[in-house]
Amino acid sequence: FSWGLIQRSALVRTFAAQGKPIVFTGQQIGPFASRHSRYLTAKTLRVATYVGVREPTASLDYARTLGARRYELMGDDSCGFSIDLKDAAQRLKKRGLEAGQFFAVNVRVGDYAAEHATHLNRIAELVGMLTERTGLPALVVPVALGGQKSDILSGYSLRKAVGDHVLVLDDEDLTA
Hints:
This protein is α/β, with parallel strands linked by helices. The chain is 45% helix and 12% strand. The protein has helices spanning 2-17, 35-46, 58-66, 85-94, 115-134, 151-162, and strands spanning 23-27, 50-53, 71-73, 103-105, 138-140, 166-168. The protein has a three-stranded parallel beta sheet, covered by helices on one side. Helix 6 links the parallel strand 5 and strand 6. Helix 5 (115-134) crosses helix 6. The mean pLDDT is 86.
């Protein structure tokens, strides 16, 4: 995502120059497609007040090597969202499901990673085996919403490949 990296870096460095705190939370750092991306990321993160990474492997190691002013392993931001259990139960009921009576799946086929489409058949095989062995349907729970990168669209592709044992959480009012 080089173009996005350039834009974000410019914003971060501009705010840092104004003395504003720069906070990154729940981040994954990398993988890097080029030395330029790695360099720009390092330069950007060094001015950050806080860098919270979501996984304890490469991202945490990289933050340490940067000499970022403050960094730590914090997990994924989304794990801290509160959930409206009544709303969730209604969304499940709409699909004929109850808590504990399905397994969740997320799949993303985006134009930014064309190779994902080549993996969809293998993912469909695995999901199909899981539905067969567990006797439970799969529910595609989208993370990315909107446009061509929508996990809902990817979910429809998975459903088409697997069959009716895959349901898609596709309500129009979904948010992160």
